[in-house]
Specification:
The protein is α/β, with parallel strands linked by helices. 43% of the residues lie in helices and 9% in strands. The protein starts with 15 loop residues before the first helix and ends in a 7-residue tail after the last helix. The structure holds adenosine-3'-5'-diphosphate.
C-alpha cells in the first residue's frame, strides 16, 4: 500500500494586509513574465476578453477578473518555475467545473478523519473546500509553506505541470465530467463572475468558444485526454494517476470514495466501514451540506469570490435543459473523436 500523506490543515483565510501583499507579489510575477506573454498568440474569447496560447492551452493574462490573477498564464508560468513538489504530495487535478470543489472536500475529509470528528466543528461545516485545499497556480506557487501542505489542486494540463510533480512520482487524482454539463456549468459560472454590470455571455458564444477550447485553461477535452493518457501510461507504476468520473461518483459514491481513500493512502478499515464512516464522509461532502456551509462561511471582503459561486445544482444532465439538439450532437461528436481508444466512460 502507498504511504499515507501528511495531515493537512485548512488554509488560514488571508487578512486584508495579506491579501494586499499577495496582490503586490502577483504584480511582480506579472511583470516578470511580461515579455514571454507578449509574444504569445492571442484570441478573443467569451465576454470580449482575450486569452493567450501557451503550451497548447489558452489562458487569460494578468489580473483578469475582480483584480484576481488566479489561473492566469503568469500564475501557470510561475508555478512551473517556482513550485517544488514533495514525493508524498497528492494533487487533485481537473478542468474547471468538473467537480473540483467536491473532490477537494472528499479528499480533505478522508485524509483528516482521525483528526476531526464529523460534528459541528469539522472544518468543512464552516469553511469552503477551496480554503481547505489550495490550488498550486493560485496559492501554493507563492511558496508559502502553509499553503503547500501535501494536498493541493490544479487546473494545469498534465503536459504543463511543474516538472517536479512528475519526477517525484506524486499521486494525482483526476476528475472528469460530461463535457456538456461542464459547458453549462462554466457558462453559468462565468456569468456570475462577470456580475450584473456586464452584458451576460450568450449561450451561443459560450458554446462556440468551449467547443474550440478557446477559454481560460484551454480545451476541456485536451485536459481530460492528457491526464487519461498519463493514467494509462503510468499504470505500471502502482497507481500514480487515479481517474475519477463525476457521474460515477454520483451513481456509486461509496465505491468511488473507497477507491479515492485507498489511492491517497488512507484506506478505510473494516471497523470504520462497519461504523459507516464512508457514509458520514459522503454526507458531509454532499452538495446540500457543502453549499450551506460554504455560503454561511462567506467572506464579505471586496475582490473575494463569494463561495456560492462554486455551487449551482450539482446534478447530472442539466445540459439538456439548455443545449439545442444540434449543440448536443456537435459536442458528442467532438467527445467521440477526442476520446477514441482511451476508454473514458462518458
Ligand atoms: P453545476 O454548475 O452543474 O451545478 P468545480 O468544483 O470544478 O468548479 O465544479 C462545479 C460544479 O460541481 C457545479 O456544477 C457545482 O454545483 C458542482 N458541485 C459542487 N459541489 C458539489 C458536491 N458536493 N456534489 C456534487 N456536485 C457538486
Amino acid at each position: 500500500m502507498l504511504s499515507p500523506i501528511a495531515f493537512y490543515s485548512p488554509i488560514a483565510i488571508a487578512t486584508e494586509d495579506e491579501e494586499k501583499a499577495r496582490k503586490a507579489k502577483m504584480s511582480i510575477i506579472i511583470e516578470r513574465y511580461k515579455d514571454r506573454v507578449s509574444v504569445l498568440h492571442k484570441h478573443k474569447t467569451w465576454n470580449n476578453t482575450h486569452v493567450y496560447k501557451y503550451e497548447g492551452f489558452w489562458y487569460h493574462r494578468g489580473f483578469w477578473y475582480q483584480s484576481n490573477a488566479s489561473f492566469s498564464i503568469e500564475a501557470v508560468m510561475a508555478s512551473q518555475d517556482g513550485f517544488q513538489a514533495q514525493p508524498t504530495d497528492v494533487f487533485l487535478a481537473s478542468h474547471p467545473k468538473s467537480g473540483t470543489t467536491w473532490l477537494k472536500a472528499l479528499a480533505f475529509a478522508i485524509a483528516n478523519r482521525t483528526k476531526f470528528n464529523f460534528g459541528p466543528n469539522h472544518p468543512l461545516r464552516t469553511i469552503c473546500p477551496h480554503d481547505c485545499v489550495p490550488f498550486i497556480e493560485s496559492e501554493a506557487f507563492l511558496n508559502n509553506p502553509s499553503y503547500a501542505n501535501g494536498l493541493m489542486a490544479t487546473h494545469i494540463p498534465y503536459t504543463s505541470l511543474p516538472k517536479s510533480i512528475i519526477s517525484c512520482g506524486c499521486r494525482i487524482v483526476y476528475i472528469c465530467r460530461d463535457p456538456k454539463d461542464v459547458l453549462i456549468s462554466s457558462w453559468h459560472f462565468m456569468n456570475k463572475l462577470i456580475g450584473n454590470e456586464s452584458t451576460p455571455i450568450k449561450l451561443e458564444d459560450a458554446f462556440e468558444y468551449f467547443s474550440k477550447g478557446i477559454i481560460t485553461n484551454g480545451s476541456f477535452w485536451d485536459n481530460v485526454v492528457g491526464y487519461r493518457k498519463a493514467s494509462l501510461e503510468r499504470r505500471g507504476r502502482p497507481d500514480t494517476v487515479l481517474f475519477l468520473v463525476y457521474e460515477e461518483m454520483k451513481k456509486d459514491p461509496k465505491n468511488e470514495v473507497k477507491k479515492l481513500a485507498k489511492f491517497i493512502g488512507h484506506p478505510f478499515t473494516k471497523e470504520e466501514e462497519a461504523k459507516r464512516v464512508v457514509e458520514e464522509i459522503i454526507e458531509l461532502c454532499s452538495f446540500e451540506k457543502l453549499s450551506n456551509a460554504s455560503t454561511n462561511a462567506n467572506d464579505e471582503r471586496e475582490d473575494t469570490l463569494s463561495n456560492e459561486i462554486f455551487f449551482r445544482k450539482g446534478i447530472v444532465g442539466d445540459s439538456v435543459n439548455h443545449l439545442t439538439p444540434e449543440m448536443i450532437q456537435i459536442l458528442d461528436r467532438i467527445t467521440r473523436q477526442k476520446y477514441e481508444g482511451l476508454d473514458i466512460p462518458i
